[in-house]
Design goal:
With 103 residues, the chain is mainly beta. The chain contains no helices and 9 strands. Strands 1, 2, 3, 4, 5, 6, 7, 8 and 9 form a 9-stranded mixed sheet that branches. A hairpin with a 6-residue loop joins β8 and β9 (95-102).
Length: 103
């Protein structure tokens, strides 16, 4: 998928994706993603994400970019997380409130 995916509820891509995903509830990419995900609830990239995720909750296997939401979770972070609860599993300190920066 390359381009813009916009839906009232849910966007899902089973392959690598380079696009903008905008959904009322949830965005999901099974493999690599380059672009921006904006959701009303949850954005998820199972593998690596290059870009940004904006939603109430965000998950990326690894992210190079920005996550903005109430809850942000990354297995590996190279960028910034902004939210109430920020988790970076590859860091010595895996939890940081408000802002978390990973290299």
């Amino acid at each position: 998928m390359n381009g813009v995916a916009c839906s009232g509820l849910f966007n899902s891509t089973g392959e690598s994706d380079g696009s903008i995903q905008i959904a009322g509830l949830c965005n999901f990419v099974a493999f690599d993603f380059a672009g921006c995900q904006i959701s009303g609830l949850y954005s998820c990239v199972e593998s690596s994400c290059l870009g940004c995720q904006i939603g109430v909750a965000n998950y990326a296997g690894s992210i190079t970019g920005v996550q903005i939401g109430a809850v942000n979770f990354a297995e590996r972070l190279c960028g910034v997380q902004i939210g109430l609860f920020n988790f970076n599993q590859s860091s010595c300190i895996s939890f940081m409130p408000i802002i978390n920066i990973g290299f």
